[in-house]
Amino acid sequence: MSTAWYALLGLFFATYFVLGGYDYGTGILLARARTAPERRAMLTAVGPFFLGNEVWLVAAVGILFGAFPLLEGELLSGLYPAVALALAAVLTVTASVQLRSRPASDVAKHAWDRVIIVSSTVAAFAWGAVLAGLLQGVPGHVFTSFALISGLAFVALVATHGAAFLALRLPEGGFDKIGRKLAPLALAAVGAATVAGLLSSRVRGHAHRLPVVIAGLALLVVCLMVARVTLGRRNGVAFAATSLALAVPVLLVGATMWPFSPVTGLTVADAAASGPTLRLLSWLAVPLLPALLGFQAMCWWAFRGRIDDRAPVYW
To answer: I want to staple 146 with a disulfide (CB 3.0 to 4.6 A). Which of 15, 196, 261, 287 is the partner?
Structure first.
């Protein structure tokens, strides 16, 4: 049962990175919008999904606390600076998106837009550093060169994902062209992070499943190449490719750490809660997972397609 909950934990975090990724990617790409109507259209495109996407993070954290209390304690204590930075940035993004439309002044709205851009970038960077910290082991220095480069690579991945999302949702704006420019940049950043990992003795010592690492990196490269080729032609395929690209790092870290985590010195079974606790949580998860999936499917079906002048404005 502990293995099933470990897989469910990975699924929830991967889904959060995919769904929250285009939120933060849209926030980062606000920097290229030159006019207020362009920024308004970008936020309108992401508006129906924004708060629903954050639910997956709350659910993933709940699983971590409830099903893996020992793992949660080790990770939060060892990766506290990166985790705290990520959560602070997530809260700032959420608040600033909802507050930007309150003031009537264009100057104030533009100031909130800058907050969204910075906090979205920081959130993506910090989550990349958290994933890198899991690979290099905790406790220890969180912001090593590997973690810093991995954080920048995750920012590039998130920005590419955001461009694919906006190309799918906006009638115009040239985001397919932006995505085609960002995909090679993301590839280069992933390559730099890979080199930094190979040069780090800590990463080599903790990433003990080399075939999984190679397969994950190969899949990531393929996803970015597919996105580069299909953007502007088949935007749905490009968005699916960037979605998978954001899920791959979580799956790679989870598979590398299973079943024995050199990060905590515990097996997955040792880090899990007791059998009765997991069974009780299973009864709670049975209705929760279909509800979350159904809500997400309903949102995407209700707001499918490109936005137009009749699209509701949320923020």
So the answer is: 196
